[in-house]
UniProtKB/TrEMBL annotation:
Pfam families tied to this protein: RRP36
Quaternary structure note: Associates with 90S and pre-40S pre-ribosomal particles.
Subcellular location per the Swiss-Prot or TrEMBL entry: Nucleus, Nucleolus
Keywords of the record: Coiled coil, Nucleus, Ribonucleoprotein, Ribosome biogenesis, rRNA processing
InterPro entries the UniProt entry points to: RRP36
Protein name: rRNA biogenesis protein RRP36
Region of interest called Disordered, as start-end residue ranges on this chain: 1-51, 192-214
Length: 214
């Protein structure tokens, strides 16, 4: 018959001490940032600790200045459109001078390929300038209408909010009046152009079966 093996007290004490050491190591990993033994060595991090998705890989020094975009920063203040237009009005003058320069180059140039390139640049620049003027005129009309509406409200009238469709009609009327004042002969061309554009829109909206003429 085999006699049962009796465990020594020293073995129990060693196993308990080992468990305590493991617990202490686990606690030391959780508490505070890991310090390097030498400043030349890389930082050691436990493999048991899960890596965060939005972690900072390199510890940057605090004295580095953060870059900021003044367009989207509250420190730059609110955007003042009127002040911006006044400050950068010289760009419009520069564009006008560029158009004149391109026109002179086209008149002097003899190479047909170069003439075509210059004409494309000229038409692109002219359309850009015309679009900017159109936007500026729209803003001016909106500002005038708002001013008139505020004056009427101050007199006791109920506020009136104009629809986008009516706004477009008023813009078209203003454009028509300006053409009539500057060049009365161009009015017929403007009306014909608008008529063709509207006819093309109606043609696109029309069902395919109705487009056929039987």
């Amino acid at each position: 018959m085999s006699t049962p093996i009796q465990s020594n007290g020293s073995e129990d004490s060693t196993s308990e001490s080992d468990v305590e050491k493991v617990e202490e190591v686990g606690k030391s990993e959780k508490v505070g940032p890991v310090k390097r033994k030498s400043k030349r060595r890389p930082v050691e991090i436990s493999s048991k600790k899960p890596v965060g998705r939005f972690r900072q890989v390199v510890d940057l020094p605090s004295n580095i200045k953060k870059r900021r975009d003044p367009r989207f920063d509250n420190l730059s203040g609110k955007f003042n459109e009127d002040l911006f237009e006044k400050s950068y009005n010289f760009l419009n003058e520069y564009k006008d001078s560029e158009i004149k320069e391109l026109q002179n180059r086209i008149s002097k140039e003899k190479d047909p390929e170069e003439i075509e390139k210059l004409r494309q640049l000229l038409s692109k620049l002219q359309s850009k300038v015309a679009h900017e003027k159109q936007l500026k005129q729209k803003k001016l009309l909106k500002r005038e209408r708002r001013k008139e509406e505020l004056e009427l409200v101050s007199r006791g009238k109920t506020p009136f909010y104009i629809k986008k469709s009516d706004e477009k009609k008023l813009e078209l009327i203003d454009k028509f009046e300006k053409i009539q004042k500057s060049n009365p002969k161009a009015v017929d061309k403007f009306i014909e152009k608008r008529r063709k554009r509207n006819a093309a829109k109606e043609h696109r909206r029309m069902p395919f079966k109705r487009r056929r003429v039987e």
